[in-house]
Amino acid sequence: MRPELAPVAGVRLAATAAGIRAAGRDDLTVLELAPGSRTAAVFTTNRLRAAPVLVAEEHLAAAAPRLLVINTGSANAATGAAGMETARAVCAAAAEGFGLAPEQVLPFSTGVIGEPLRLEPFAAGLPRCRDGLAADAAAWWRAADAIRTTDTRPKAASRTVELDGEPVHVTGFAKGSGMIHPNMATMLAFVATDAAVADGPLRDLLREAADGSFNRISVDGDTSTNDALTLTATGAAGAAPLESAADPRLPALREAVAAVCRDLALAIVRDGEGATRLLTVRVEGAADAAEAARVADSVARSPLVKTALFAGDPNWGRILAAAGTALTGEVDWGRVDLHLGATRVVRGGVVAPDYTEAAGEAAMAPEEVTATLSLGRGEAADWMWTCDLTHEYVTINAEYRS
Asked: Which fold would CATH assign to domain 278-398?
């Protein structure tokens, strides 16, 4: 069931089938941001960075964005100098049609890596988007649907809080299903609020939200070339601006932004290509934060753990083995415990005396499973969300370009 979306004042959206991909689906999306809007963004850390990522970073440093242009069907990655020219040409065409400077346009692309992005579809598609701009919830859902590639469903979320007695909305949408792994977000996501937020606090809100959501998910361990996450504050809600990190109203907005990002991140993992189960990997008692993160990451990306999850098989040895690859120095396995849900499977590094295979199978049966690994090495903790690895994942990716 789709969640209710709260439109964000100061944002209008449109999508159209421009012919960038052959399926006849919407493949060009535009978000128009009101004058005075502020936008922060984070991008992929993959060293093969797509042309639109590089151009978006350039433009974000040069001007306040007024237009986000997103295409599906071509990632415009590994396309060399020609790809950079195309990304800039898309911005120039959009700027001319919307009465903006090219630096006020941020481009985003998703699709097959290495295939050139054709400019021709933008000539007809951008005017249709300009004429079809709307601010209602239906426009947000259409945009969420248009940016999908292998996603089986659109992903969007909203929260509403009060600032100075005024309702303030936070709404976002995302795409992602495969090629999902930190760091950073391994997908495209666009979040907006009608609160007024200064640049510094806005960047902090975005980084904190990304670290607690999109940087906690893994589908297949592969980081995309095109990852981008934006957070826009339009200031159209009427509440006084949040100018500093010390503003007492900021925590309420922080939690709303974080909640929207968590909803979107979890939607991506639940919709992992061919996924049937969600696994939360919790690591406790690590020596330090870095170790906790390494262990959670190692377990979450392990193909053996993920295939056991698909089968509902409580093969706990795979979890310990994946953890062992991320640990360094001497490890006292006599201090290590593992729970699947509420069922203790491992005690002191070996199978728990009261554990039964039937109890393990029951713990693995739900669509959402939590594995809690206690290392007994310190006080640090971390977590990751991942999904199972299925026959369908192989089929989808074997046939991706077919």
From this structure: Ubiquitin-like (UB roll) (3.10.20)
